[in-house]
Amino acid sequence: MTDARDERRPAGELEAAVMAALWAAGAPLTPGQVQTELGTGLARTTVTTILTRLHEKGVVSRERQGRGYAYVPMQDAQGLTARRMHTELDRDTDREAVLARFVAQLSPDDEQVLRQLLDGDG
């Protein structure tokens, strides 16, 4: 039986849960296996739709397994976050302003890490 609360969660939250299951598995999973890993009562068709969308976005790859597909992440969590940051940056025409505001909002510790990375020390 499907839990209606799971069906109404935002798509981003469902995608994050599916990605977490794929990263934890460390091996390709079918939609049914992802459904089992999530343990939320989410309908298999919903899981399949989420995996298909993630594939269309280039976030997961898939390989034939029987009559369906098994899915695997294209990047680790940090790589995916970096990709999202680039996507957001690309949406704005004033990259300099966006970057300036991003840097201005960094914590001192994050600013130090960024400085080390930019200087090639990290």
Question: In oligomeric terms, what are we looking at?
Answer: single chain
What is the ordering of alpha helices and beta strands?
A: HHHHEEHHH
Question: Helix- and strand-based class?
Answer: mainly alpha
* C-alpha termini separation: 49 Å
Q: What profile does the largest beta sheet have?
A: 2 strands, antiparallel
If you had to describe this structure to a student in words, what would you say it looks like?
- The chain has 122 residues and is mainly alpha-helical.
- Helices cover 62% and strands 10% of the residues.
- The protein has 7 helices and 2 strands.
- It has helices spanning 4-7, 11-25, 31-38, 44-56, 77-90, 95-104, 108-119, and strands at 60-65, 68-73.
- It has a two-stranded antiparallel sheet with strand order 1-2.
- The termini are far apart.
Q: Which terms summarize this structure?
A:
122 residues, mainly alpha, 10% strand
Outline the secondary-structure elements.
Layout: H1 4-7, H2 11-25, H3 31-38, H4 44-56, E1 60-65, E2 68-73, H5 77-90, H6 95-104, H7 108-119
